[in-house]
Amino acid sequence: MEDKLIQETVAVISCNEFAQKLGLEIMLEGRGDLTVTTDNVCRPGLQFAGYFDHFVPERIQVMGNAENNFISRLPEKIKINVLEQFFSKEIPCLIVCRNLEVDDFIIETAKKYDIPLFRTAEKTTNLISRLNTYLCGILAPSTILHGVMLDILGIGVLITGNAGIGKSETALELISRGHRLVADDSVIVKCEGGVAKATCPPKIKHYMEVRGIGIVNVKNMFGPGSVLLEKNIDLIVKLVPWDDMPEYDRLGDEKQTLNVLGIEIPSVIIPVSPGRNIPIIVETAARKVRLEQFGYNAVDELISTTFKK
Predict the structure, then answer these.
(1) Where in the sequence numbering do the catalytic residues fall?
(2) What predicted TM-score, i.e. pTM, was given to this entire model?
């Protein structure tokens, strides 16, 4: 499978989106967005003490009780000096935890350098833990694949194939049978924790293009239970035109995989021809993967039964 790999080493997030995702109060929007290049988070205790050697300004800065008490006790001239140095480094943002009162000099200096300033009632350690998870997600290596992503009986199935092969029609029939759509046409895949997770570009979420009908909203047409925002990819199904010459796998004992973002994902090739019920075959392939996840293999059972003494 040829895929267009996009290494997300930089993520630009609007202040509103960042605050909404993490439940933060926006005290200052500053430049209006955050440029994030690392999932590491920093508590600026040493910086407030005037030590800026080895400081990494690319990290999101989080201030808790200790930092707040320390900065509030500094003499005014020293406080202004360290805050000038701190905010002039163009940090992504500063988050104040525990709904602490924010020093006026912090607000003024953040405003001077257009640095976003947030506040939350959450404890510092809890926020940092959630921040790490969130940042790992948005900075994960990603790729965009052409296909249709479905949740079939709990198995994430990515249907691929050339244009006009019948991917959307197959997916539509599966949705009408009670399975769920994740994405149609463009599938965003991210590698998180060694797992390939698929989602849909926000602008086309819940939409499908069906030749002869046009654009349909699956959620409105089939109900909220017909869509899913994200799903791990457990199986890749490639639809190809039927050809009498190639030898297709007839036993299912040939384990095939496709590499996506360094992850080997089980795959099958399904030939398409008039009269073949492709949706049923795709559903059967998903059921087969589900059984194999529980340790059952029909080929092994057949061989053991056939050659049993």
Answers:
(1) 146, 167, 185, 250
(2) 0.69
